[in-house]
Amino acid sequence: MENKEKNYVAKTKLGEAVLQGKIKNIDEILLKKKPIHEPWIVDILLPNVKYEIMELRTSQRMTDSGRRTYYNAAVIVGSENGYLGVGRGKASEPSIAVNKAIERAKRNIIKVPRGCGSWECQCGTEHSIKRKVSGKESSTYISLKPAPKGLGLAVNDTMKKILYICGIKDVWGKARGATGNIYNTLLATYKALDKLNLYEK
After folding, report:
1. 114 contacts 95 by C-beta, under 8 angstroms
2. 67 and 90 in contact (C-beta within 8 Å)?
3. Is the pLDDT of residue 3 over 60?
4. What torsion do the CA atoms of 131, 115, 107, 176 make, to the nearest 10 degrees?
5. Are 116 and 122 a contacting pair, CB within 8 Å?
């Protein structure tokens, strides 16, 4: 099925259901853990989704035709309202690498349950997280803990950006290991936030 106005072409049953209006909320997809193969599904169901380029670096490789340069991009996407995705892309052009990363981040989008788990606050609003969680990617380890309203994001700059784009305003956090690896730090934070779904009904 094709949506001519936006040039969306459904290649999966999930895509067809979205274009036909049978699915109107992305939570219907995420709660059932259905894989999103078409990134435009996120554009339709989360029209306010934003992205930020976290890293864009070059790498070189020797081929039969000589030395070739590739671009590696790491991107985060989010709605600033409880949704988050992380992706990485590689291509011979920077813009193509970024677009690949954005598409993969949208396909990997998750819901991030928010709340007020701080005993110092107990305001009941969705400004922080509900409980302590941790995540690991390779040799990078991070932990997050609920914080009272007004504290802000007490974490490093990489974690601060990924928390902000998913709508978390106050949190305590620690990172150790290879924290200079931006993509691993993003993935470790992403995994920690995804663990919050394990405690949801």
Report:
1. no
2. no
3. no
4. -40
5. yes
Q: What are phi and psi of 169, to 5 degrees?
A: -105, -25
pLDDT tens track for 82-103? 999 999 999 999 999 999 999 9
Separation CA 62–CA 59 (nearest Å)? 10
Token digits for 178? 């290879």
Domain ranges for the chain, please list them.
2-35, 50-111, 133-199
Contact 26, 45 (CB under 8 A): yes
If pLDDT is split at 50, 70 and 90, which confidence band does 72 have? very high
In the CATH scheme, what is the code of domain 133-199? 3.30.230.10
Helix H segments across 24-93?
27-30, 40-45
| 50-111: CATH topology | Double Stranded RNA Binding Domain (3.30.160)
22 secondary structure, DSSP code: S
Tokens of 191: 């995994």
Residue 5: CB atoms within 10 Å: 6
Q: Cα separation of 70 and 107, whole Å? A: 23
User: Quick one: pLDDT at residue 119?
Assistant: 84
Residue-by-residue DSSP string for 133-176 = EEEEETTEEEEEEE--TT--EES-HHHHHHHHHTT---EEEEEE
